[in-house]
Design goal:
20 strands, 4-stranded mixed sheet, 10-stranded mixed sheet, alpha/beta, globular, binds inosinic acid, Adenylosuccinate Synthetase, Chain A, domain 1, Adenylosuccinate Synthetase, Chain A, domain 3, Adenylosuccinate Synthetase, subunit A, domain 2
């Protein structure tokens, strides 16, 4: 038995999709355990580009099993579209290689409506959510008003719960948020065919994972978002509503912590953030613009331009601790080609105090100054390089510094979007 968890170490968009796709060749089962279709994992295979929002990235390998765990919030309209679109492109997707937890909570139209209405009402103070209904769905789950996939399997139960929930939501829509109410009938009509469509996929993900372990299979857990968007440990309230940390694999997929052997943290060679919230190393000048353009830093889910900045080792070190990372994968290193000088943030100062960890107080984080080290850049293209020794010396120095700051070895280096634009230094499944 062996299992690997892949998590983002920053604010999401670290390139997890590509790494998961690569590691899938060593895995038998790939599992999503949190988040929803706020995620957008981009995969490039030859001339084909796939953006997956809900289905684990392992789906491109037809012989692997992909599972969506109970910790994921599932918009069935999106899942249906995603399955259909992949099939139209010739991929094999069916109950034989995709399973959906019976305990996963459903994102319903009123969650999306609420997300957007609240963000609109907040105006300039909005969080910049993806508008996919993620927060409202997790709220209902915790408030014990949520609807799970299993509830949809019984039409009467589903109808009763939707009608009950909508009474409260519609009151909020009409009298507080001043937006149009929703009609339960519309939701029931949309969901009846979706229930029939999804029924063969519904499964007990915890049992399936346990069975895989008993059969000595390799399981890969695919995180979404990133450590600093974590509802507990991220830059609250500018966070998502789930726990993207490695620890949430246990609750989000249904296994115990002793099963976890290896955690791979994905770190972009610089930093990006989409949506609101503090970002100490953000660049507001032409360097930030250059990172955005060279790195194609536009959201895979919403198309929004991502905010860009230097690598933040404070953020990275917190991620090492919060996830007990065993290895790092450094992505998009090629994007840094051509920058004369590179900066790495090693601490923050605020009112004479120095921080070597991300402070909890938003006001401190918003107003702190990053402490930078400067590293010489390189001008050579990294694409096509497969051995660490063949990287320019300045690139090797930059990577060595990341390892030294994180105190974690780098196992994978990505120098381009294609599968073969990768340096494999170690196999996380070998742990
Ligand atoms: P929500 O998850 O849609 O509620 O959005 C909350 C915050 O998390 C916003 O700042 C989003 O931009 C951010 N966010 C959510 N999912 C992702 C992701 O997959 N990548 C990057 N940022 C994300």
């Amino acid at each position: 038995m062996s299992c690997v968890i892949v998590v983002g170490t920053q604010w999401g968009d670290e390139g997890k999709g590509k790494v998961v796709d690569l590691l899938t060749q060593h895995a038998d089962v790939v599992v999503r355990f949190q988040g929803g279709n706020n995620a957008g994992h981009t995969l490039v295979v030859g001339k084909d580009r796939f953006i997956l929002h809900l289905i684990p990235s392992g789906i491109l390998h037809p012989e692997k099993v992909c599972l969506i765990g109970n910790g994921v919030v599932v918009d069935l309209e999106v899942l249906h579209k995603e399955i259909t679109a992949l099939r139209e492109r010739g991929l094999q997707v069916g109950p034989g290689n995709l399973g959906l937890s019976e305990k996963a909570h459903l994102i319903l139209p009123y969650h999306r409506h609420l997300d957007i209405a609240r963000e609109t009402a907040k105006g300039a103070a909005s969080l910049g959510t993806t508008g996919r209904g993620i927060g409202p769905c997790y709220e209902d789950k915790v408030a014990r008003n949520g609807l799970r996939v299993i509830d949809l399997m019984d039409e009467e139960v589903f109808k009763h719960k939707v009608e009950t929930n909508l009474k409260e939501k519609n009151f909020l829509f009409e009298h507080f948020l001043k937006v149009s109410p929703l009609n339960p009938r519309d939701i029931l009509d949309t969901y009846r065919p979706l229930a029939d469509f999804i029924r063969p996929y519904v499964t007990n993900v915890s049992l399936r994972i346990d069975q895989a372990f008993q059969e000595k299979k390799k399981v890969l857990f695919e995180g979404a978002q990133g450590t600093h968007l974590d509802i507990d440990h991220g830059t609250y309230p500018y966070v998502t509503s789930s726990n993207p940390l490695a620890g949430s694999v246990c609750t989000g997929a249904g296994l115990g912590p002793l099963k976890i052997k290896s955690v791979l943290g994905i770190t972009k060679a610089y930093t990006t953030r989409v949506g609101g919230g503090p970002f100490p190393t953000e660049l507001f000048d032409e360097l930030g613009e250059a990172l955005r353009e060279k790195g194609g830093e536009y959201g895979a889910t919403t198309g929004r331009p991502r905010r860009c900045g230097w690598l933040d080792a404070v953020v990275l070190k917190d991620s090492v601790r919060l996830n007990s990372l065993s290895h790092l994968a450094v992505t998009k290193l090629d994007v840094l080609t051509g920058f004369k000088t590179l900066k790495i943030c090693t601490g923050y100062t605020w009112q004479g105090r120095v921080f070597d960890h991300v402070p909890a107080q938003l006001q401190v984080l918003e107003n702190c100054q990053p402490l930078y080290e400067e590293w010489e850049g390189w001008s050579e293209s990294l694409r096509g390089i497969h051995k660490k020794e063949d990287l320019p010396p300045q690139t090797q120095n930059y990577l060595k510094r990341i390892e030294a700051l994180a105190q974690v070895p780098i196992g994978i280096i990505s120098v381009g979007p294609e599968r073969d634009e990768t340096l494999h230094l170690s196999n996380p499944f070998a742990v």
